[in-house]
Amino acid sequence: MNIIFIQMLAYAEFPAVETVLIPSGTYTMGCDLESKHLCFKDEFPSHQVTISRPYHMMTHEVTQGEYQSIMGINPSYYQQCGSNCPVEQITWFEAAQFANALSQKMNLRQCYTITHEKVVWDNFSCTGWRLPTEAEWEYAARGNEQYIYAGSSQISQITSTGNRKNEYITQPVCTFQKNAFQLCDMSGNVFEWVWDTYTNYRSKDETDPFIYQANNPSRVRRGGAWCDFEKYCRVSIRYGSYATFRYKYQGFRLVRTAITDSE
User: Per-residue confidence of the chain (263 residues) as pLDDT tens digits?
Assistant: First the structure.
């Protein structure tokens, strides 16, 4: 049984950021038995992944209010939804820039070196804010549970996504049920950028995997969005889009590598 701690991290003058400490562990990444009949080609092959060190993850997607307080602008299409709704219309590059800006605001080491459209990551040794790897994202979304979606196999319990067309709009974060790791909206609301380049899975067992190909412009987005039907909100669903892609269903959340007792 995992004991999950919700923490409010505050540094400098920035308001508290609510995070959950995700424990290390091993899981099967990719298409699973619960949703095998729904899976697409890029969800195979399923493979065992070990996350070797814990990390802090934002309990919800970065909100419009949080983004504006750091970057000074709100690019969201659904601004009428309010400051507690996820920021959207964010490119992958802008998500990386926000991670650095938030780290700087909180007097943390910036994890990315950004030169024009080139982004270099210091790897897991950096404990500032960063995008989760695709493996970290799926592990957190699954929450050590055997559900089709993050927190339930009933879509209506965890999001309004895909149910009724009059609800095709973002919702305030954490409106619905959380998963076992106490994370909100890992299935639905807006898609979330992750660090990895979009490419095929490898079949071998892996520890702390991530893929970054500088010559491949496509990055991975996960989690489903307000405009999707149920099968597109599964924990194993994955998409690839150019890092410059901007649309009203695209947002993100960040993580921080946790400092362990041995460090």
Answer: 444 545 544 444 455 789 999 999 999 999 987 788 899 999 999 999 999 999 999 999 999 999 999 999 999 999 999 999 999 999 999 999 999 999 999 999 999 999 988 999 988 999 999 999 999 999 999 999 999 999 999 988 988 765 555 556 899 999 999 999 999 999 989 999 999 999 999 999 999 999 999 889 999 999 988 888 888 999 999 999 999 999 999 999 999 999 876 55
| CATH top-level class of 6-257 | alpha beta
> What string of DSSP letters covers 136-156?
HHHHHHHTT---SBTTBS-HH
Distance CA 89, CA 73 (A): 12
Q: Residue 61 in contact with residue 193, Cβ under 8 Å?
A: no
Nearest to 20 by CA among 195, 174, 176, 208: 174
CB atoms within 10 A of CB 44: 15
Question: Rounded CA gap, 63 and 174, in Å?
Answer: 11
Alpha helices by DSSP H, listed for 13-91, are: 64-71
pTM, two decimal places:
0.92
Bridge partners, residue 121, by sequence: 112
CB-based contacts of 62, cutoff 8 Å, min separation 6: 86, 87, 98, 251, 252, 253, 254
